[in-house]
């Protein structure tokens, strides 16, 4: 049975990448050593991490004055790193509360003594549309935190709000390389790997170098400038995860880059949303302009029926359709590695499910 | 050609573990999904992380009142986490400066505003023996930081110094499971995985629960109590690294546990040290009582000759014998996964090398 994995992350990876990793697992480049056994100071790994950086720079057209860092700790680590490194002037950041992960970012900043002002929230609307940004007074906030794609709620900032002179910190964990953005519109972008970039364990950070400065009382593992100076090799990095990331980046390049990924993702998402919008049973309640390409949330309105969908779908090889535990319902994550055939199989199954109700 | 990898970490892994990972890489347990694609909230991963904890508890006889945490960031992350979580009373820790990594731990604590008193150092003796612990006044320090095995300098605390009522924080990164210790002698033990536990990317923390308490202004990713409460699943953990770690733990159990590992490691190390002590060319200069089982440092006294050894050894499949870049010379790391045959091959090669000088 062909299996399609709709998990929100860790998530499906491109099949050729998994195949290549398996093939070369015992002996990287004929070295007789597994990538798991390769020293981060070895020349072979130097090639890999440099390739990964170069590929990401090419794919996202990252300007030279932005640093690319490979860190650990995922988005949650960055919820701390960003305020600790960058909220050193006003000690105050602005947040648009577009859902759970934006809210957690605000909470982490506050925990670390940085005021996090929620300028707008759509919580009362169940986050079914994105909060609009009110005018921001200049020189008030160190940055505006935006969760670019809201994995749990299924919304995306396809266009960034105008924050004026306030830099934007973008949590792009769930739609990096899935959709085109201009890096220059951000002061910083971060993304955990486990959705569009590879296995969990490495976190990509793209940050304007000019913004970096010496910080005090910040753990070294969260110090952007230190990681830039040491080219992400201050200590032992997650070697395997960076290796796998590099292969995923290669795959995206081979497929035609981010523009092609976006084109395919739009086709996949459009098809699924069109089905849901026509369905007498399933509904997506997100405002159309804000709908995510990568995370399609939907439900039947009945918890029991939703559970039946999850179970029966799994029996058909359509895995992990359960919505996030905080919101329930159903969710299909359509990251870059999900082929159109997977979406077609899902639609066929859902169609069949509703016919037999 | 059989390859033996003497790298200090990331390092050699048990061959059967690499083979198993390769075999099940495309489809974990017949699921049709790679371990790299498995959600950390999936039942399959719950089994894995629970097994890993149970196996580690069994192997190290970890008492129930100690928490076992799987974190990210390696030893360097713990150099921050330990003072941030545990040096909250006196805001002062004691350090025995036994080498580079102890010194870096002291530096990180100081960076974070915790006084780090170096009670003794053997820096002037090139760290060739361990610094003795002077008497410690009770209720002066939150803890004593000890680097149990000094990977760079090739020394080990085979017996812990008497710190009285001051808890010991042990950095066991390079000899965890290689040698038996009593967990109760420590308040906290930590270890990056990439030497004896598996691939880089996961860090094991063993900490007395009673010592944990609510902390303020500590990044969530470094918060021991939070990780204990959330069973290391506060956010997405490094799934693949924990999976591989679990298989390494299984292998250690199958081999006979830590006692058997120590027995083998003593045989391997004794053999290599005996050769070096007899050699007219190679010398290990570490005080015999303090010699490490896992990291044997040696040199010829000539940098050029050391380099020739590294290059010629590599041509014979004996890889990564270069000493740490900060001290030069040669180093053979003999972690659990290094078979006696590797040590024999190394001795044969070194013997041959000196004969042909």
What's a concise summary of this model?
The structure is a homodimer of 357-residue chains. In chain A, 36% of the residues lie in helices and 15% in strands.
CATH architectural name of the largest domain in chain A: 3-Layer(aba) Sandwich
What is the string of helix and strand elements of chain A?
EHHEHEHEEEEEEEHHHEHEEH
Please bin the fraction of helical residues of chain A: 25-40%
- The CATH homologous superfamily name of the largest domain in chain A equals Type I PLP-dependent aspartate aminotransferase-like (Major domain)
Total tally of structural domains of chain A? 2
User: Which parts of chain A are unreliable, with pLDDT below 50 for 5 consecutive residues or more?
Assistant: none
Classify the secondary structure makeup of chain A into a structural class: alpha/beta
Beta percentage of chain A is 15-25%
Biggest protein-protein interface? A-B, 69 and 69 residues
Shape of chain A: globular
Mean pLDDT of chain A: 97
Please explain how this structure is put together.
The structure is a homodimer of 357-residue chains. The first copy, chain A, is of the alpha/beta class. The first copy, chain A, folds into two domains: 16-254, Type I PLP-dependent aspartate aminotransferase-like (Major domain) (Aspartate Aminotransferase, domain 2, 3-Layer(aba) Sandwich); 257-355, Aspartate Aminotransferase, domain 1 (Alpha-Beta Complex), CATH 3.90.1150.10. Chain A is 36% helix and 15% strand. The first copy, chain A, contains nine helices and 13 strands. In chain A, the strands form four sheets. In chain A, strands 2-10-9-8-5-3-4 form a seven-stranded mixed beta sheet, with helices on both faces. In chain A, strands 1-12 form a two-stranded parallel sheet. In chain A, helix 2 (43-60) crosses helix 6, helix 6 (239-255) crosses helix 7 (257-278) and helix 7 (257-278) packs parallel to helix 9. The first copy, chain A, is globular, with a radius of gyration of 21 Å. The two termini of chain A are 25 Å apart. The model of chain A has no long low-confidence stretch (mean pLDDT 97). The interface between A and B is large, with 69 and 69 residues. Chains A, B: InterPro entries: Aminotrans_V_dom, Aminotrans_V_PyrdxlP_BS, Pser_aminoTfrase, PyrdxlP-dep_Trfase, PyrdxlP-dep_Trfase_major, PyrdxlP-dep_Trfase_small. Chains A, B: Its cofactor is pyridoxal 5'-phosphate. Chains A, B: It is found in: Cytoplasm. Chains A, B: L-glutamate binds at residue 41. Chains A, B: It catalyses: O-phospho-L-serine + 2-oxoglutarate = 3-phosphooxypyruvate + L-glutamate; 4-(phosphooxy)-L-threonine + 2-oxoglutarate = (R)-3-hydroxy-2-oxo-4-phosphooxybutanoate + L-glutamate.
